[in-house]
Every structure is written in C-alpha cells, then in structure tokens.
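User: Okay, second chain of the day. Same drill as before: sequence in, structure tokens out.
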Amino acid sequence: MSQLFVFIALCSALARGVSAQTNAPPLVNGGFPLVSPSAPRILFESNRTGKSQLWLIGADGTGEKQLTNRDGVAGGQWAPDGKSIFYTVMTGDTSRVYEIWPDSARARLIGAFPGRAPRISPARTRVVYDVGPWTASHLVLTDGQGRSPRQITVDSVNVWLGVWSPNGRELAYTVSAKSGMSVWVMNEDGSRPRQVTHLTPEEGRAQMPAWHPDSHQLAFQANASSPKGKSTLWLVDLRTTGAREIAAHKQAYLDETPSWFSDGRRLAFQSDRSGRMEIWSMNSDGTELFQVTGRQ
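Assistant: Same drill. Structure tokens below.
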C-alpha cells in the first residue's frame, strides 16, 4: 500500500478506537477521491485487490475501472485540464511521478523526487513534497524538474501534504503541533504562512484541506476525540477565516478527504458510514447525499 494510504488508514483506525497494531490494513473499497476539473468523474484509491491502486468512476457510480496495477502506487493528482493524471510510485524514499491519459494508452515518466506525496503546480513549474518521518515531516519546494530544493516549513511543527490552489498562487497543508492540528496556507513560494482553521478540541483536529475551484475556500476534515471514530467535513472561507461544519453528526463514523466538483457546489469524500470505506458525494450544504462506490 502507499505510505500516505497506510498513514491515513491508521489515523482512521485510531479514530475508531481500533488498535493500529494489526497485520492487515482495513479494507478501503473507495478512498481519497479526487474529482476531475473538467468532467463529473472521480479518481480514487482502493486496496480491494490486496494492494493500493488507482481507480476511476463516474460521479453517478457508473463506468468504474482500474487504472493502475503495480506495487508502490502512492496517490494521484489530476492535471488542470482534466485530460491526464499524475500518479506516484514509491520506491524506498523516492517518489517517481508518472503521467497517464486514462482515455488512451499514453503514459510517461515525469521525474523522481526524494520524498513523499509530490504535488505538481498547475503551471507545472514547481513541485512540493513531504520529507522526513511522519512524526517529523516538513515540506520541500523545487522547480518542475526537481532542482534547487529548499525546505519551506519550520522544524518545530510536523507538516504534510501540500496542496496547490487551482490558480497556483498558494499552498494549503496540515500542521500538527503541541497545540493540536490545523490547516495552514502559504504563498506559492513558501512565504507568509498562516493558520486558517481554529477549531476547538471538541470540534476536532483539522486536516486534509481541499481547494474550492475559486481558490478562496477550503474544505477539510476534522477528527473528533469524542466519540472515537467520528470525523466530519468543514468549510472555511479564506477571506474571513469563518468555518462551518457540513452534515454534522454525532455518530461514530468518518467523513474524510473531501474533493470539490468543478461547479464548486458539490463535494466527494470517503466515508465508512455504510460499514465500509466508500466514496460518497453531497452538496456543500450537506444535502443530496449519494453513495458512489460499492452500490452493488
């Protein structure tokens, strides 16, 4: 399984009060959805075959197909035009990024980066990735060819998974510190880092930000400590830093890893509300809940 997939799966298991000291990772039939910026279809990860692979499905739950079949697959990313997909293969501490065109047989190697979860900027001129162990991770920024790497987050906090805004001007990421977990945003060059979520411990640990198409809002998940196994989705407007919860619930199930549809009105996310981790979607006000994967 991908290292990021394992990390989030373990976080989900701990949130549910399940011991992380297990031999087999939990089954994720559908997880980590990424909605295409140009069409109503969703890239997602699943370990249903025994190892984490990338799959594609229509937003209506039809046309599901497996895209990858190799060891070390560690997440994907849509190109801005929605015609191709970048995906990562981890070998040791090195991430090799490939570009594939899901509607053809085209594929090519983009490059290799000495870290996890590389994300390519919309203009393809910069790459950000994680370096260090999960408990002491920081972000590194390079040019599009991986040259001139420099650390852009401080060592005093644990940081992971930088995500580019659609306009390419900012990066959102998760920070874990003694004071708790929160979502931060910085400029594209690493300048002006600022905290944008300010949830209480009761509201949850903010993480996994996803940019709205307008580059002014973020969706994110907040994992609660009580009850164990509860996670909800939230929205924050960066112009006001006001946050609101979507589809609030008190039950012990997880709504996580949001991704916006291109119209900015609907979200895809992973949830175990059915008893198994699947892809779901809903409007940004929490209405019209729809199960995408595992409908049969």
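The two ends are 25 Å apart (CA to CA).

User: Thanks, on to the next one.
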